[in-house]
Amino acid sequence: MREPATATAEPQVRTLRRAVLNTLVYADLFDYPLTDSEIRRYLIGEAAATSRVTALLDGDAGLRRHVDRTGDWVHLTHRSHLAKVRRDRAAMSADLWPIARHFGAWIARLPFVRLVGVTGALAMNNATVGDDIDLFILVQPGRLWLCRLFILAIVRLAGHQGTTLCPNFLLSTDHLRLSERNLFTAHEIAQMVPLTRTPWYDAFLDANDWVRDFLPNAFGNASTGEARRDRRSATRVATRLLSTRLFDPLERWEMERKVRRLRARQEREGGSVAFSVHECRGHFAAHDARILATYSDRLAAYAAALS
Q1: Regarding beta strands 133-139 and 165-172, do their DSSP bridges make them parallel or antiparallel, or are they unpaired?
Q2: CA 20 → CA 188, 227, 297, distances in Å?
Q3: 126, 130, 117: which is closest to 205 by C-alpha?
Q4: Under a CB-based contact definition with an 8 Å cutoff, are residues 32 and 124 in contact?
Q5: Could you give all domains of the chain from N- to C-terminal order, each with its CATH number?
Q6: How far apart are the first and last CA of the chain?
Q7: pLDDT by residue (tens digit) across 182-238?
């Protein structure tokens, strides 16, 4: 009587084993071991409870050939040194967070800004010495490029103080659904830490519900950031004034001027970029493409274990 149940359970075990190993392989590309709950949150392509993940990690002989534990962290075999790497990077990230919040608050007070979020390594407390602070910013429609101009003034100010801010993704609130849909982008969205709590964060997640196809469990523990303070009266007045049609030509001029420069940089460096009235995505040097290609190669090496 037990054979049918075993036959039914075995494909489920294989599916979960594949998802867990896929998830650890991807995290390993960033030298980042995971806790059981983090494996569950970032589990690729499979919805599962943490208890199921832990039971598999502890009890599945096939998985144990490729996976090991160091303290609370799970990693691929022969990668136990990543426990120290994670501790060291968490300490470096802790030093960066007050700086990110400080300048993020300044940016959040600018005209047209609707949301400021930290992305990249810092969002995962995985920053290394000299890392930039990557920022994702939602802005009022029709003023993306003027808003970017104001943001760059704060970027320069931060630079004079020894901090490198990288606002490499600005998006208009009337075009929230991203066209770039892959595992790398899904992770960037799921990992993003909003610095201010506004309705636009939830709206952005809702518009990009495709992320759940890659990371079904990702949004359960999403950080909501600090409550946004009321805008200063000067900012409200400036926003109303700069939103008038009088400044439309200036917006177009700034866009045309900057897009020419950014296109020239794209020709030199390549990358996943997009420049329009609705979007300024400056992910140069094709970091995302390299990560996804390396991930695919690593999975091929684990093909037998994943079968």
Answers
A1: parallel
A2: 19, 35, 17
A3: 117
A4: yes
A5: 8-84+292-305 (1.10.10), 93-285 (no CATH)
A6: 26
A7: 999 999 999 999 998 789 999 999 999 999 999 999 986 454 555 555 556 778 899
